[in-house]
Every structure is written in C-alpha cells, then in structure tokens.
Amino acid sequence: AKRYPSARVHAYEPLPENFRKLERATASLSNVVVHECAVSRTEETMPFYVTALADASSLLKSRATGATYDKYVEPAGRIDVQVVTLDDECSRNNIERIDILKMDAQGNELNILNGAHKLLDSRSIKLIYTEVNFARIYENIGLYHEIAAFLDTKGYDLHNLYNLIRNQRGELAWGDAIFVRRAASC
Questions:
Q1: pLDDT tens-digit series, residues 28-54
Q2: HSE (CB half, 13 Å, CA atoms) of 97?
Q3: Which of 40, 47, 100, 165 could serve as 111's disulfide partner, Cβ 3.0–4.6 Å?
Q4: What is the CATH code of the structural domain delimited by 37-181?
Q5: For the chain, which residues make up each domain, given as ranges?
Q6: Distance CA 26, CA 155 (A)
Q7: What pTM did the predictor assign?
Q8: How many Cα atoms within 13 Å fall on the side-chain side of residue 92?
C-alpha cells in the first residue's frame, strides 16, 4: 500500500490481537481499510478456531496429520467472529473491480471464492494470489486441485506455484498460487 499510494487496499483479519497489530501497522496509510472479520461463503457469525501458532488459526477445525506442522495447528481456543462475503463487501464498499485478490485463509480459500460468484462471473477480479493446500491440515479444507478446478470454470488459469512447503516425508503440504483471468473470447 505504501508503494502504490493510488491503490485502495481492504484487509480482513478476524483475530482481535492480529487485527490491532494490522491497524497499528497501517494507521499512517490512508489507502488501507482494515476490517475486523473473516471472509467466507456466507455472512453470519461463526466459530473461529485459534491454534498454537495464531497465524494458523482458521474458520476450519484443524486436524492432526502426523506431520511436523501438527504442533502449529494444535487447538488453543475458539472465538466467535463476524463473517462476510466478498460479493457483499464489494457491494457495500462500492468496489466494482479487484486488480489483485490476495488470500491466506488457512484452508478456507475455496469458501471465500464461493462467496465471490458475482465478482468472478462478471470478470471483476483480474488476478488471484492465494495460499493453496495439498494436505488435509483442516477439516473440510479446499485443496489445491479443487480451487484450480473451480477457478477454471470461472475463466482463470494457473500462472505459477510459489513457496511450496513439504512435510517431513517430502509430500507437498501448502504453498502459494497465482491465477490470472483468461482473455475474453471473441
């Protein structure tokens, strides 16, 4: 946001402590709006599962996989959080297009995309940079292949995978993916 002062950034953080940190970190940036809520497929109050490593907390319950990262997703509590959808948030904030949608929602990314049907169907999102999961770290997790298949139906192609993390057995666990909107057909 600092490098692109003409960009408008909306950031969503459901954990109160992380929200306050984000608010402090962006206080001097007039082009950043911080929202204390989670994003998913429906608007409602939902349980948010806090984990040993706060950054691994999620709307989805964690599950033990026998991998070295289990200690990070070990349950540490639960809070209720307000949940919004991208479609409704963009409507409320008069956002007609999104140049870059950045998601890191600990396995809930597919649900977020399901709450953005209007935006995706109207081709209002240009690029999607998202965390993707290859391992079932959370219950009801949207795995990489499900996200890729969903975005394919919405007119997006995988550009590349980045920051791939493997477990102690060498299996892919998670990483980041960039999907770009396909050019419109003639």
A1: 999 999 999 999 999 999 999 998 888
A2: 7
A3: 40
A4: 3.40.50
A5: 37-181
A6: 33
A7: 0.93
A8: 9
